[in-house]
Amino acid sequence: MLPATAAALAVLAALLAWPVPAWLGRARWPRRDPLVALICWQAIGLAGGLSIVGALLVHGLAPWGHSLPEAGWAVLTGRSADDPVRGDHWVALTLAAVLTAELLGVLALSWVRTARTRRRHRDLLELVVQPSPAAPDARLLEHPAPVAFCIPGARPLLVLSSGMVAELDDDQLAAVVAHERAHLAEHHHLYLLPFVAWEAALPVLPAAARAHAAVRELVEMRADDRALAGLGGPDPRRTLAQAIVVAAGGAGGGVPEGALAVAGSAVGARVVRLVTPPPPLPATARALALACAGLLLLVPTALLLLPAL
Amino acid sequence: MASLGDLERTVMDRLWAADGPVAAAGLRDALADRGLALTTVHTVLSRLEAKGFVEHDDARPRRFRPTATREQHAAELMHEVLGRSGDRQAVLARFVGGVDPEEARLLRQLLEETAPDPR
């Protein structure tokens, strides 16, 4: 019997499913250090999945042994259970299998689908626009709306619309390009992928949508920070903020209605953060946040591997 | 030796410039300055067909034409970039999404208020 371990994992899963993401989503400190906050979000997602599946497994396998490795080994080698196996054990095991399959399946599906769409976009772009000799990975697309984006992957592409080039001066354009290159250099699409997938997998969990929105905003802020580090000019923060405001305002006409207000507040937060920068997170706070992220992963792992309480 | 991507673009440019469907031999002749073998032209055309950019008719020899104009392809791409389907947010990283006119005005105002003294 492993009741205490399963209960502890279930409590942890419940905390990670709602109060913890809600707290981190509301906290003010993430915008002071987006990278540390992004690491915390990844830890929350991973630890949440680990503890809910773990809780179900530990309960379901309880009749076979006193620790998860022992019980798992007993099942794999076909040893019969020490204690009688009840219906709730089978229900827990089935739920664990379904949940694992759903989480990993949706992630894989999302990966395949985005890879396919990216390939099609890249094919289209390579056909429709000439590579610019100055920057081989950049393309100029003829379109009046000021738009810039990058397609991540093995052969990344950076795309600027002619509208964007027309509306921005050289410094602002350099800031936009640096921002997009930061996304590519740090593989931000990989940070986002699990949250996109799990929002699709768990539409009943409001925390999944909240986590996805928070991670998206943090990834943009992180790319802003990284772009600033490489920019010259008298006031790079202001240059980047101006580029954001021009691009956000000018693109409005071409964007369908709906969902815009949500994205809008994130744009505003980016601009405010650039023109009135918050103080950077103190080293001790950084270390504390990273330690919490590490602990979040360590606790469910230890509960799963150590002998039952 | 030009890359396949480069050749595909050149062939598409020819097809877009042509008045109607073109046979592979016609493309080879139009691109004589590149000295392409007919098999190379066919390879490029079948790649383009697999990607859905080119279709052929039933004439003998088969003649090829683009499935859409360059402008239509560009418009389709932009439509997806500017749209908001859930998966697309993972597909590409856009510099900034659009905001409504009111928020755009507020943000411009914020920039003006925080502008350094021009002295």
From TrEMBL, chain A:
InterPro entries: Beta-lactam_resp_regulator, Peptidase_M48
Residue stretches making up the Peptidase M48 domain: 118-194
One matching Pfam family: Peptidase_M48
Gene3D superfamilies (alphabetical): Metalloproteases ('zincins'), catalytic domain
Cofactor(s) this protein requires: Zn(2+)
GO annotation (BP), single: proteolysis
Cofactor mode of binding and number, as noted: Binds 1 zinc ion per subunit.
TM helices/strands, residue ranges: 6-24, 36-58, 90-112, 287-306
Swiss-Prot/TrEMBL keywords: Hydrolase, Membrane, Metal-binding, Metalloprotease, Protease, Transmembrane, Transmembrane helix, Zinc
GO molecular function: metal ion binding; metalloendopeptidase activity
Family: Belongs to the peptidase M48 family.
Name of this chain's protein: Peptidase family M48
UniProt source species: Geodermatophilus telluris
Taxonomy of the source species: Bacteria, Bacillati, Actinomycetota, Actinomycetes, Geodermatophilales
Automatic annotation (TrEMBL), chain B:
KW Transmembrane (keyword) present: no
Pfam family for this entry, one: Penicillinase_R
Gene Ontology biological process: negative regulation of DNA-templated transcription
Keywords annotated in UniProt: DNA-binding, Transcription, Transcription regulation
MF terms (GO), sorted A to Z: DNA binding
SUPFAM superfamilies (alphabetical): Winged helix' DNA-binding domain
Keyword presence, Transcription regulation: yes
Family: Belongs to the BlaI transcriptional regulatory family.
Protein name: Predicted transcriptional regulator
Organism encoding this protein: Geodermatophilus telluris
